[in-house]
Amino acid sequence: MSALKPGDKFPDGVVFSYIPYVEEQADIKSCGIPINYNASKEWADKKVVVFALPGAFTPVCSAAHVPGYIENLPKLKEKGVDVVAVLAYNDAYVMSAWGKANGVKGDDILFLSDPEAKFSKSIGWADEEGRTYRYAIVIDHGKVIYAQKERAKNVLEVSKAEAVLEAI
């Protein structure tokens, strides 16, 4: 499959790994049980912003990318966004801990694992080592309305929350 572009249908069969947030396991040292998150099904009738990045707890990702979405979450919701999700190749345990480290509770932002960068590879947006490129995709009821990949690894321009807000 080639890179997604506006007008494309979001692919069928896209499944990520995910640990749902529960208050009883809010401590960063608590582990939940990973479950499959069928994005194709869950997002079919919703407006979704999914942003991907090279890895949890990495400099640009932790200092700017995720905080930008946390800060702009109310504005995204005002624009009709139902789901905001961050995606990386890290396993579901790491993604869950990263969400907790960022103070994200409930399903405000889903911290999804793309094991082995399977989805990112399927759209050509992963590097040779299997790490996810930095990108953002907006899906509106199953149709891609925005899809942009950053021009370089540590650049944060087209996938940051502000750029997505301007585009939708």
Any chance you could write out the topology, listing elements then pairs?
Layout: E1 15-18, E2 35-38, H1 39-42, E3 47-52, H2 59-78, E4 83-88, H3 92-101, E5 110-113, H4 118-122, E6 135-140, E7 143-149, H5 161-167
Parallel strand pairs: 3-4, 4-5
Antiparallel strand pairs: 1-2, 3-6, 6-7
> What are the segments in which pLDDT stays under 50 over at least 5 consecutive residues?
none
Summing up helix and strand content along with how strands pair, one would put the structural category as alpha/beta
Adjacency order of strands in the biggest sheet = 5-4-3-6-7
**How is the main sheet built?**
5 strands, mixed
Architecture (CATH level 2) name: 3-Layer(aba) Sandwich
Mean pLDDT across the residues is 87
CATH topology (fold) name: Glutaredoxin
